[in-house]
Amino acid sequence: MDSYHIIGGKRISGSHKLTGAKNGVLPILAASLVTGETCTIHNCPDLLDVNTMLTILKELGCKVQREKNTVIVDSSQLTQSYIPKVLGKEMRSSVFLLGPMLARCGAVEMSHPGGCAIGARPIDLHLKALQKMGAKVEEENEKLFCRALKLKGTTIRLDFPSVGATENIMMAALSAEGETRIVHPAKEPEIEDLQNFLNACGASIVGAGTGEIVISGGKPLHGAEHKVIPDRIEAGTFLAAAAVTKGELLLENAAPFQMASTLAKFREMGCSLRTEQDRIYLKAPQRLKAVKEIKTLPYPGFPTDMQSQFLTLMSLADGQSKMTETIFENRFKQIDALKNMGAQIELQGCSAKVIGVEELRGCHVEAKDLRGGAAMVIAGLAASGETIVEKICHIDRGYDKFEVALKNLGARIERIQEDEREKNYKCEKA
Ligand code: EPZ
Fold first, then answer.
1. What spacing in Å lies between the alpha carbon of 407 and ligand 1's midpoint?
2. Which of 79, 153, 272, 341 is 20 to 30 A from 387, comparing alpha carbons?
3. Which domain does 385 fall in, by range?
């Protein structure tokens, strides 16, 4: 398993062009197979999870081509409705294929995506909604069989604004009879991007980003061309690296209006920020200020995918901070590693109390999940001495050439290729 070797203490400064949003492109790639035609997706990042999704689409019979950051998917000839276990287990986001496959061919079989590093991640909301639309769902020793001769539009009130469940319902509703209303949907920008893509394919969807999404089913769909929105979590991650190393960073191809809650917390911690249409400029203070409490919430609240990175910032801030995670039940896995580096953190239930220290010491740590791994890299960049971050496959799932971009911004970071001994390590799902 590859690892990173980092020599800390260098300021992260310069400019970085953001790539397309991982959590935007995954449902859009899945949705493309509903059209049965050719879709061209621009600004598609080169990530492990994206490549796994493309492999699954090929397995289902799609023709897939990649030309740099443009992916072309021709779904005219689907040859199967079964997603091999090895691929389904490889990436949780295979669950996004439930809706599109039911809409396209009325059947899908996959291994239950199961839990992952950050929590149990049930899909009960997805299945309950699809059943309410008329799908038959059977679960048999880790396998999931969904069938629907005809899906019917209905009103679905989500108990929790689940991103994946909202997306699956939107995609299944494309071929449902009549209108489907999603009440209390997720409002993330990636939902709006999916709506825009599907409407470009001929769908009729309104309300993404509001408290109710309405899909008029049965519209004839066709191929389309679409540019994925920027990755707001990649943006926040790079800003965090500059913030904690006294750096200055200009982000290009950004969407600052989608990051209000995150940018507000950078300001609260003493960073000066300027934003324009598609750029964000951050100048870090000599030392970050503690922040009384950050609580992760569904969008537009503070994103859970920025929690780990801000825990690292709090570890070095001047004073006492508190981080409360309300979305996932197991997303504080890098606390022990941060404490080995000298951080003072006490976990109390779903809150972490942090007393900032002047300095972290480099040491040998392990990435436990995607954003926790990125947070450990940020800690290593800020720490004195050398840090080794093991199992960076987690990071490769969600960041496109992470170390290359950081090196261009002044970081001393090298990727150490895995050795034979660890070749068979399988990276847990994101
Ligand atoms: C998406 O995951 C993102 N992944 C996650 O990003 C992100 O953290 C999450 O939304 C929340 O914003 C992708 O888009 C590929 P949820 P998703 O359904 O859809 C519970 C990253 O780091 N829940 O909104 O799986 C669930 O257990 C990843 O890029 C149910 O109980 O998230 C969790 O506690 C990590 N039943 C909460 O809802 C369900 O049927 C939020 O889950 C579904 C979810």
1. 31
2. 272
3. 3-19+230-429
